[in-house]
Each structure stands twice: as structure tokens, then as C-alpha cells.
Amino acid sequence: MKIKSLIKTLFLWCAAAFIIAGLGCGRLSLTGGGTEDVNAKTIAGLIVTSNGAPASETAVLLFPSHYNPVTDSLLLNTYLDTTDKKGAYRFSKLDTGFYTLQAVQNQDRTRLLIENIHVSKDSATSAPTGALQKPGAFKIMLPDSVDPATGYVYIPGTAIKSFIQNTSGFVELDSVPPGKIRALYYGARGITPYSIRDTIQVLSGDSATLSTGPWAHSIKMYLNTTASGANIAGNVYDFPVLVRLTKLNFDFSQAKGKGEDVRCIKTGGAFLPYEIEGWDSAQGKAALWVNVDTIKAGADQYITMCWGNPVAKAVSSGPSVFDTAKGFAAVWHFNNDCNDATGNNYRGTNYGTVDTEGLIGAAKKFSGGDSIRIAGLLGSPGTVSLSAWAQLDSNAGSGGEILSIGDAASFRIDDTRPNFGVEGCFHSSSKNVDSTFSNAPSGVTLGKTGWHYVVVTFNGATLQQSLFIDGKNLNQSLAVTPINYSGVGTNTLIGKHGNGKNNFNFIGKVDEARVSKNILSADWILLCYMNQKEKDAVVSFQP
At a CB cut-off of 8 Å and minimum separation 6, what does 298 contact? Predict the structure, then answer.
């Protein structure tokens, strides 16, 4: 009998070690199940396979509900058993309290987790019958500040844990029994572990479950580039997607006062850079720019936005979204200021314009003599794309200058010369008081017709120049010479001619003015228009 008892004990310990190794656990520990009770209690139950047959020879571990697999003491024989031919197990000599049962069938690696088993004053507790299933896996978003050296996450009351060992912002747990996990905890050296997520649904055989961790709320934002959406023909890369939040699609009471806890992630779990242009909880409106590395043509992909974390810190960053390494030279949102959202910090000085309601948050209103001046010529780009939303409120004069880089590269609305209208202008040469320009006219006038998205491009290598209005290409021609930045103005102006002329003073509104050192593709321009226009055709929200 002593030999049989010894063999059984060794078998149980080997089974426990096998389970622990299979779950990716380190040194296990156990401290007891609650308040000491001189009349020790029992837990008994049955385990079945996925088709309902008795699950014999299944290793079963029992843990106190508060058990931490990283810090608690060594596992006791009392909390280890193996099911018999009927799938039955039994634990005795237990204290009162709450327990979690974890089981694995060693042949097919199916698993089971039963949480919150309550042992009370009764002498015996019957646990619910559990069915073994194929395990799942999930990624979890971590808190903002984690310790990559000693940080870990774990499911309390189990041997399931994972050390972080990186700074990606996510950690993955695999071989997790399917079902609802009531909590996931984060711990590290020198801190008291705390819950970062309540209720995670793990699906059998699913290895792509993604949880937003300590963020209580999330929503999917679908990006429609099919014929019913942006209808672009090719993929677009490193694109700032405009996300408008209103009371109709977002509960502002669930987020921090300035949106500091908002995070955006793409499929697969990577964080996406984003900038909050404006956030008004009281009025229930906000505008965000989210940089998506790849937007696929003809697809309905999505990104996830999450919020609801009272300890999250603000990570909004214009330079991360409008990256100068990706060609952005200057971006002015005109959100009650003249700041440049890029890292170049081309901040404008306001000469008389006033803040007004724009197409995307706030905009600048021009009255015909005021302007915004940016010192210098933005690096005198030989290849350049100029874009802005503009609303010309007058038919008088010679039209309205939207933006002019020293009059060397500019675009305006409604040049009154025959067949000019909206145009791009690129300086070729100057002699005495006479200057020569290569023009990219559209023949279209827009005065008093509301907001329009205007883009002009100039390719310094091929000398090709183009003009787009509301996503449509209305001019594609060749210049004679590259852009000449000599003999014209020395500053960049918005709303006024770059070389001091007053017959092109702008009367109306300008919003979201940008300068890029790349040639914006036709798909990029169309995607901008369809995403940023008053009725966004790209972004939609689903739970």
C-alpha cells in the first residue's frame, strides 16, 4: 500500500508539472483557500469531454481565487487530483473560501476552467460539471506604464501567466481554457497587482481574440474604400484618417475630459499614432487624426478605438501623425491658433483673421486684407503639393489666394482671367519687374458655392503639374522650368498674395491647409476629400 501511495503521489506531482509546463507557467505556489476552518471541507465534481463522455485521466488543479502564480508559495498535494473512469475528482481538507479549478486532458490538450467555486460551512461542495474544450488565446492591451523587466499578467486563481519582456504595448496569453475569464491582473516587482480587465471572453480554438485591457470601452471604426465609400483604385499608405466624434456616435461621459485616454489600434494589435485636433466634452464633439499605415483599395477594413481608463496619460501627437519623414512639410488645422502640427513647427503669425466654425472643427475667416504669415519659404521645396479646404465668399477682385510660398508656389480660387478660375501658379523666372509663371488653371469658378477641397501638385523631376477640385483631376500639364524661388517673396502667406499684391486678397474661410514635399497621388487626394467632406463617406462606427 505504501508503494502504491508513493506511486500515486509521484504521478500527481508529475501531472501538475506537466500542466504547469503546458500553460507556460514558472514556479507554482499556493497559500490556502481562505479563513482557517477546523472542520475541513471538500469539493467534488465531474468533468466530461466536448461530446459529453466521461473525461478520465484528466489532471485537475485547484487554486484559491486570489492565487498569484508568480509570487505565491509551492503547490500542495492537497490541491491536485486526477479524474477516475467516470470523470470524477475530489478535493478534501479545504478551508472555507473561493476556489478556481483548472484542468487539462493530457492526450488531446483540451482544457477547462471553473471560477468562483464557493466552499462554505457545509461539509461538501458540488462543483458544476465542466466540459473540456480546445483552448484559445488572446492579446491584451497593457497599461501605459509597465515594467518590461519584471512585469507580468496573470489570471487570478490559475497557473496562467505571461511575462511582458517587451514594450510593444500588448502581451499574449495562449492555451487559455475557453469561456468567460472574470479578471486579468498586472503585476511587477515593487507593486501590488491590480486588475487591468474584467470579463474576457475566450473562444475555443481562437487565437486572435483582442482585449482592450484597462480601457473599459471600445468601438470598431470601419474604413470603406469600396464603390460605396471612397472608391479608390490603389492602396494608400501612412494616411491621416479624420475621425469625427459626436453625441450620436460617442459617449463623452465615458472618457477623460480632454480625451487623454483615447487609443487607436489596428487589426493585430499595434498602436496607431493619432492627434486630437479638438475635444469638447460639453458640446459633445471632437476631431481626431489617426495615421493608418495601409488603407487598402476596395476594402472595408477597420481599426479599433478604445477609451475609459481614468489613469491613462495623453499621447496625442501631431508630429507622429504628420511625420516629416513621410513628406509632410507643414499642416495648419487652424484650431483657434496658427500652429503647425508637424515637427517642423512652422507657426504662423496672425494678421487680422478671426476664428470661426470650419469644416473640421475651427477655421480661419479672412476679410480681404488680413492674412497669416509664416517666416521663410518652408525649405523652398522643388517638389510640392499644396492642399486646403476653402470657401470663397466673394466674386469681386481677381480671386482669392489660399496659400503662397513667397509667390513661387501658390494656389488660388477664381482668377478672373478668361478660362483660369481655380489655379496653381509656379514661378519660372523674373526679369526687372516682370515675372513668368507656369499656370495650372481649371476653368472652374467656386465663389459663393461653399466649401471645396483644392489641391495642386508640382513634380520637380518631371515638371508635371496637376490641379484637383473635390477629388477630381481638372488639370494635368507640363511646366517649362522647375520652381524658381528667386526674385519673389521671402515669406509664406495664407490668404494673401506672396509678393505683396492686394488684388488676390482672400474673402472667406480656410481650413486644414497643408504643404507636402511629396506628390500626392490621385487616390490619396480622393480619399482625403471623401473622408473630410461634411458627410464622411469613409469612416463608420460599429460596436
Answer: 225, 226, 227, 232
Contacts from 529-534 at CB under 8 Å and sequence distance 24+? 529/453, 529/470, 529/471, 530/229, 530/230, 530/231, 530/471, 531/230, 531/241, 531/242, 532/242, 532/359, 532/360, 532/389, 532/453, 533/359, 533/451, 533/453, 533/470, 534/359, 534/451
**The domain defined by 219-321+536-542 carries CATH number 2.60.40:** yes
Q: Please name every residue paired with 125 in a beta bridge, in sequence order, or none if there are none.
A: 43
Calpha distance 381→410 (Å, rounded):
12
> Quick one: pLDDT at residue 208?
67
Same fold, 136-217 and 219-321+536-542: yes
Question: Which residues lie below 8 Å from residue 71, measured CB to CB, with a gap of 6+?
Answer: 29, 187
Only one residue has cell 499605415, namely: 293
> What single-letter amino acid sits at 113?
L
For the chain, list residues with pLDDT below 70. Answer: 1-39, 74-78, 167, 208-209, 396, 432-434
Closest CA to 154 of 142, 146, 164, 162: 162
- Determine the Cα–Cα distance for residues 442 and 19; give it in Å rounded to an integer: 72
User: What pLDDT shows up at residue 112?
Assistant: 95
Q: What is the pTM of this model?
A: 0.79
Contact in structure between 390 and 452 (CB atoms under 8 Å): yes
Which residues, 6 or more positions from 39, have their beta carbon under 8 angstroms from its beta carbon? 123
| Cβ neighbours of residue 112 closer than 8 Å, sequence gap 6 or more | 47, 58, 101, 102, 103, 104, 130, 131, 132, 133, 177
Domain layout of the chain by residue ranges: 2-131, 136-217, 219-321+536-542, 328-517
Please tell me whether residue 229 adopts helix, strand or coil conformation: coil
Task: Give pLDDT, residue 268.
Answer: 73
For domain 328-517, the CATH architecture is Sandwich (2.60)
The whole-number pLDDT of residue 431 equals 75
Residue 114 falls in which region: left (phi positive, over 0), alpha (psi -120 to 50) or beta: beta
The CATH code for residues 2-131 is 2.60.40.10
Contacts of 226-229 with C-beta under 8 Å, sequence gap 24+, read 226/298, 226/299, 226/300, 227/298, 228/537, 229/300, 229/530, 229/537, 229/538
392 touches 414 (CB < 8 A): yes
Q: Give the right CATH number for 136-217 from 3.40.220.10, 2.50.20.10, 2.60.40.1120, 3.40.630.30.
A: 2.60.40.1120
